[in-house]
Design brief:
The structure holds two protein chains of two kinds. By secondary structure, chain A is mainly α. Chain A is built from six helices and no strands. In chain A, α1 packs antiparallel against α2 and α2 packs antiparallel against α3. Chain A starts with a helix and ends with a helix. Chain B has one domain. The radius of gyration of chain B is 21 Å and the shape is globular. The chains are: A mainly alpha, B mainly alpha. The interface between A and B is large, with 29 and 46 residues.
């Protein structure tokens, strides 16, 4: 068992544990903090896979920007145990059943299916910023440009919603 | 490609026209002229004139089917703008922005009608969805509109998440985003592919409000400003349907035995729930929301049958459904009372409008000599020829009969009930003429459906 395997193993344990804590913890602020831990450990995975660019973007965008926004929203809404909505127990049962079935299907599919390209630990160069940039601006340049329309429409929408009437 | 570029460009133009121009009539005229130009360049592309050739590495492919479908969508939007653009002014102050968002949505529809790669499908669906969340909530002072927008946004982003998960699983199984590559069979079928296909199917089913995923539809359609409900229920729904049929025709044709039964069950559930719930509605707007679910059931028959017949049927259905529903909504927007009682005595007050509304309702119900009849006929014919399941077309026929009951309630209210309040309806002559032309088109397509379908082949 070499150092990479130990690293991947421990990162996976941390990711799974913190992801579980996100949904288990009763306090929404704790959930968000655990979610940040999850993002950081996923970034750790990216680094092990030699995808530094993804790792940094993941931290900057998700752990940095989005999670801070989440925290602000949750703190401003002042959620606590009294305001927690009481759910019907049949609804809870239905949720557990359907979620469990989805988990079963996906785990079974991942277990039986053969993944085409195995993850390349350490030596893969797919995630390097140069390779990524070349792909993005040659093969995927059309979708890249089209996504600008998506962002433009989202921006117009944000102004429409945010402007005072 | 022409239409794709021009629609994005028109969106930007509309954005700036809001700053430069102060007159709402000028903004509206630019939008209508832009819509006509969009239709024109699309028809030019059908005849082989492409202004700008872009190498998309095979990710986007405009074929005859996609182009004809786009033409129908653009023509319907043109009619929609001429009939209802005036009513958008009442929604809020951001008039030019609403029109810009509509052009962006059209750009999304041009993408999903011609995608060859799942990346483009995803981008297209998102370009359609995000402006819709905003249009739904554009009546900012109305709590119902806010609620509808938030509900639509949360559920819509969840279904987008499902779609991404599905695409990721498919990529894991096949190592490609191209639909042609996904369709190729080499060796055993990976369970990953099937799981991904199901997730994609469910998220698409959500976007077109197919039965077990339809719960958002009545609330959102009811809460949104009526002008935008009209757009969402017709043009957008038909646009996403073409993505649905293209995905399963080109991406998953080789997996047909795996998905055929599931689609059949979804279709049956949609037909049952949509039609039977619509019978119990008290508001015409809500009834039309359920009717759009029911009509989605009929359109889903084309995905189920998956043959050249069913593609012709979808083209005809999209045209018939869009035109009739846009017409009814255009009249409904003008009404002050959206319940069935609001239509009482309408025939005495506005004989012409009542007559054209009757034609649209007859078309939706599928009465012969209207486009709706031919459309339903093509769908059920395709389902009869290409299936082992005879119960599905029979169920569709029975449900078409059920639908008559709620469409005719409006006709009954218009012609056989007396109104207690005098009419306050004001319409311009242009509005009247456009509606009459629309009704004439509905009847013309019902008699000569080949006028439209011939465009597919020459």
């Amino acid at each position: 068992m070499n150092i990479t395997q130990i690293l991947v193993g421990s990162l996976s344990v941390i990711t799974l544990f913190s992801a579980l804590m996100v949904i288990i913890s009763r306090n929404p602020v704790h959930s968000v903090l655990w979610l940040i831990v999850t993002f950081f450990s996923i970034s750790g995975h990216y680094i092990v896979l030699n995808a530094q660019f993804l790792a940094i973007v993941n931290i900057i965008v998700y752990a940095g920007a989005i999670m801070v926004l989440f925290l602000f929203v949750i703190m401003l809404m002042n959620l606590n145990r009294e305001t927690e909505p009481q759910k019907n127990k049949w609804l809870k049962l239905a949720g557990v059943l359907s979620g469990g079935s989805l988990l079963l299907v996906i785990v079974a599919a991942l277990h039986t299916g053969d993944i085409k390209a195995m993850a390349q630990v350490k030596e893969g160069d797919i995630g390097l910023i140069g390779t990524l940039g070349k792909e993005l601006f040659s093969t995927y340049v059309v979708p890249f440009e089209i996504s600008s329309i998506l962002f433009l429409s989202a921006m117009v929408g944000a102004v429409v919603i945010g402007k005072k009437e | 490609m022409n239409a794709l570029l021009l629609s994005a460009l028109m969106g930007v133009v509309m954005m700036f026209s809001g700053i430069v121009l102060k007159s709402k009539a000028a903004i509206r005229n630019i939008a209508i002229a832009g819509m006509l130009a969009l239709l024109l360049v699309n028809i030019l592309e059908m005849n082989g004139t492409v202004f700008l050739v872009i190498d998309s590495k095979g990710m986007i492919g405009f074929d005859r089917f996609a182009l004809l479908f786009n033409s129908i969508i653009f023509f319907s939007t043109f009619l929609y703008l001429t009939l209802s653009a005036r009513d958008m002014e009442k929604v809020g102050v951001n008039y030019a922005e609403y029109l810009a968002l509509i052009f962006f949505i059209l750009c999304g529809i041009a993408l999903v009608s011609s995608f060859r790669s799942l990346i483009i499908l995803f981008l297209g669906i998102e370009i359609i969805s995000i402006p819709l969340y905003i249009l739904t909530g554009s009546d900012k002072l109305n709590l119902k509109s806010n609620e509808a927008s938030l509900k639509y946004f949360l559920l819509g982003s969840f279904s987008t998440g499902l779609m991404l998960m599905g695409i990721a699983l498919i990529y894991g199984a096949k190592g490609t985003f191209y639909t042609s590559g996904i369709n190729m069979v080499n060796g055993a079928i990976s369970p990953l592919l099937i799981a991904g296909m199901l997730l994609l199917m469910f998220s698409m089913a959500f976007k077109v409000s197919v039965a077990p995923f339809h719960f958002w539809t009545p609330d959102v359609y009811d809460g949104a400003p009526t002008v935008f409900t009209s757009f969402m229920a017709t043009i957008v729904k038909a646009g996403v349907f073409i993505a649905f049929i293209r995905l399963f025709d080109e991406g998953f044709a080789s997996q047909q035995p795996k998905w055929k039964l599931i689609i059949a069950i979804l279709t049956a559930a949609t037909l049952l729930i949509g039609n039977i719930t619509a019978v119990f509605q008290q508001s015409v707007k809500r009834m039309l929301a359920y009717s759009s679910i029911a009509q989605a059931g009929f359109m889903l028959l084309s995905v189920y049958a998956m043959s050249p017949d069913s593609k012709e049927g979808l083209i005809l259905y999209a045209a018939a459904y869009c035109m009739a529903t846009i017409g009814i909504f255009a009249v409904l927007i003008k009404m002050s009372d959206y319940t069935f009682d609001g239509f009482n005595g309408f025939a005495k007050q506005q004989p012409l409008l009542a007559a054209v509304t009757t034609i649209f309702l007859l078309s939706l119900a599928g009465i012969p000599l209207t486009a709706g009849f031919m459309a339903k006929f093509y769908m059920i014919k395709a389902a009869m020829y290409n299936s082992g399941l005879l119960w599905l077309p029979i169920l569709a026929l029975v449900m078409a009969a059920v639908s008559v009951s709620y469409y005719f309630r409006v006709i009954q209210a218009m012609y056989f009930r007396e109104s207690s309040t005098p009419s306050t309806l004001t319409v311009t002559p242009a509005f009247r003429y456009t509606l009459v032309a629309l009704a004439a088109l509905v009847v013309l397509l019902g008699i000569f459906p080949n006028l439209l379908l011939a465009w597919l082949y020459f």
